[in-house]
């Protein structure tokens, strides 16, 4: 790809396979093509700072250029306030946050905005300070997602907006604002995240053969590919799984009279959907095990909460680490394959065997007061 000092147009390409496999026509995914300086220049200008660039303003510029009103905009990189004042929208520089005038800096001493203070809806509880990427996503994200997936209804649009913030944008906000993931020193450091990869595209102290604007454009391509992947994956893979999870929950009494075991016909991303649907439907008692087919049949304990490694009920400790005949003999259940050493998941050759493992573990857990 020949990068030049020019504006560029976001060109959308969706594959026939994606169109056939989903109801979503992604009009703006996967590729950015830089075009020649001789192409008609837009009078619309997006302002950001020059010099060392970071993932947040790179992504903010990319997201804006997905919108019709900014797709042909010129990106002006400067710290000269008189130049920034001529821009239609300014991100990550300028010392001002004012959505009414499209100024989206976050470096001011008194800036404390998070998604919870900007969106102001139930379920948006994060207090991590927004970067310029987070600001643009909060103010334009719904419209951007609608551009990429126009068939989404309002409820599904909201679900994807929240999902992409939690799984993608929040990380960029946290890293840019220096928010640690946890207290204490990490045992190892991650140096391959998107923010780090964008940073590596900056000119180094002894670089002589690269152009700053070309590198910024490369960074936009990189960040844009990941952003559109997260949107596409959420709409094409994650969201359709919700229907299957909800059906499994609604049919749970047909699987076991306790209502605490569900069966999935396919191995799908289920955890986040399960917690949300439990809350929406006021499910009580909560679901303890999920049975699904993945070559053989699996029985998996439901974690206490999203991201937790502690299950509501584990498979029996005496099964942990055993396999095949030894496990089958210990459990007294035919065709057992394995149980993980922690007891969070196990396998059986048959559906009936997997359900029997779940039922035994459930009874044992209840006997222990769980």
Protein traits:
MYG1_exonuclease; 41% helix; alpha/beta; 2 domains; disordered N terminus; 5-stranded mixed beta sheet; 370 residues
What does this molecule look like?
The strands form three sheets. A five-stranded mixed β-sheet has the order 4-3-5-7-6. Strands 8-9-10-12-11 form a five-stranded mixed β-sheet. It has two domains: 45-180 and 190-235, no CATH class; 256-369, no CATH class. It has helices spanning 16-21, 55-64, 81-84, 115-119, 132-148, 154-176, 194-199, 212-250, 252-255, 271-281, 324-331, 351-367; strands at 8-12, 30-34, 45-48, 74-77, 89-91, 97-98, 103-104, 261-264, 289-294, 296-301, 336-339, 345-348. The protein is 41% helix and 13% strand. The chain is elongated and about 80 Å long. Helix 10 (271-281) links the parallel strand 8 (261-264) and strand 9 (289-294). It has 370 residues and is α/β, with parallel strands linked by helices. Helix 2 crosses helix 8 and helix 8 (212-250) packs across helix 10 (271-281).
């Amino acid at each position: 790809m020949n990068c030049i000092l020019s504006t560029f147009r976001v060109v959308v390409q969706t594959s026939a396979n994606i169109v056939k496999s989903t109801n979503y026509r992604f009009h703006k995914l996967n590729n950015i093509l830089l075009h020649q300086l001789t192409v008609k220049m837009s009078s619309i200008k997006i302002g950001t700072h020059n010099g060392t660039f970071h993932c947040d303003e790179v992504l903010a510029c990319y997201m804006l250029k997905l919108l019709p009103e900014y797709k042909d905009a010129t990106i002006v990189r400067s710290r000269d306030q008189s130049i920034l004042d001529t821009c239609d929208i300014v991100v990550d520089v300028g010392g001002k946050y004012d959505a009414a005038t499209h100024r989206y800096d976050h470096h001011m001493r008194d800036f404390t905005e998070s998604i919870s203070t900007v969106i102001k809806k139930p379920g948006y509880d994060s207090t991590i300070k927004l970067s310029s990427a987070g600001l643009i996503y909060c103010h334009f994200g719904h419209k951007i997602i609608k551009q990429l997936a126009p068939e989404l209804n309002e409820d599904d649009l909201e679900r994807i907006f929240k999902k992409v913030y939690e799984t993608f944008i929040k990380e960029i906000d946290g890293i840019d604002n220096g928010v640690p993931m946890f207290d204490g020193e990490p045992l190892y450091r991650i140096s391959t995240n998107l923010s780090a990869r964008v940073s590596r595209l900056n000119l180094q102290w002894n670089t002589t053969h690269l152009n700053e604007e070309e590198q910024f454009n490369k960074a936009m391509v990189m960040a844009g590919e990941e952003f559109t992947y997260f949107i596409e994956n959420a709409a094409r893979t994650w969201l359709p799984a919700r229907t299957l999870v909800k059906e499994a929950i609604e049919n749970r009494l047909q699987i076991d009279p306790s209502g605490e075991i569900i069966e999935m016909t396919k191995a799908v991303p289920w955890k986040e959907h399960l917690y949300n649907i439990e809350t929406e439907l006021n499910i009580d008692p909560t679901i303890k095990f999920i049975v699904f087919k993945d070559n053989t049949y699996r029985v998996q304990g439901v974690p206490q909460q999203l991201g937790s490694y502690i299950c509501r009920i584990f498979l029996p400790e005496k099964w942990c680490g055993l396999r095949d005949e030894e496990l089958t003999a210990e459990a007294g259940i035919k065709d057992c394959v394995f149980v993980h050493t922690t007891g969070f998941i196990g396998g059986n050759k048959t559906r009936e065997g997997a359900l029997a493992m779940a039922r035994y573990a459930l009874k044992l857990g209840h006997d222990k007061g769980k």
